[in-house]
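Field reference: sequence -> structure
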Amino acid sequence: MVLQTKPFRVLFRNPVSEIALVGRRLLRLSAVMRLARSGDHSSWAQRAVEGGQVDFLDLGTSRGGSIRWAERYLGGKLGLGVDLDRQKVLSALKAGYPAIVGDALDLPRTWEKKFRFTQMLHFLEHLEDSAAATRALEVAVRNSRDFIFVKQPYFDADRILASEGFKLYWSDWDVHPNNMLSSEFLPGLRRMLKSAEISGFEVRAHERIESSEHWAVHSVGSPRNQHQYDPEKHPPKRRTEFPFDVFRELWVLIWLPGTSRADIRLPYESQILISEGSK
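Structure field:
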């Protein structure tokens, strides 16, 4: 049996030092202890946010690993996760990540501009549709001072891949009702740019998939809700190079009034697809 594994690639640029990460972990654990002692997670979060103690907001936090990612690669300090799933929030708390049960589309109005940045990592695809995703972006803009960062699976190539007999494994997950294309971000972003709610945005693509041999590519005959391609488990796929663009992730970076694009450092190499607004 040939084991297919994800390749290890060193693409990180200027990650936060290990010493700084230890300090941020201690800050997190202290917050989780205070949250646990409070007995009322929402009340503690409200006081912490309004008191300026929380640096960033993590929408759709799940079990909290994305908070650690923001600490390491976006320079986040104390983050607060929000998720509708109570069990996932409890798992995040148990793992040492401050999190509360809440609706990312209906956060308190008193949180306006209380966070330096908001991130949404592999969250928008789980929402009902692109309209809900646009509302999530609007909430993030309302509550942030500097920038918003979004990562999601890349869906732009789904149609052309299907015509060639392929699919990316995440494209037919039952838990991904919103297979949002890069073009679907533009109406909401351009409206916010025109109204000066934001200063600019970039839509980017990360990690090009060059051929059907990539571990994320399956034959269209593969069952739904799969993960990494395994030749022992999944239907065979023909080998071919892709003459069209296929990527692993789509990113959206939004910067807000008072923040320059040059002030924001992204952690991986990526390709700009669309860029509008001031720099």
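Note: The first strand starts at residue 56 and ends at 59.
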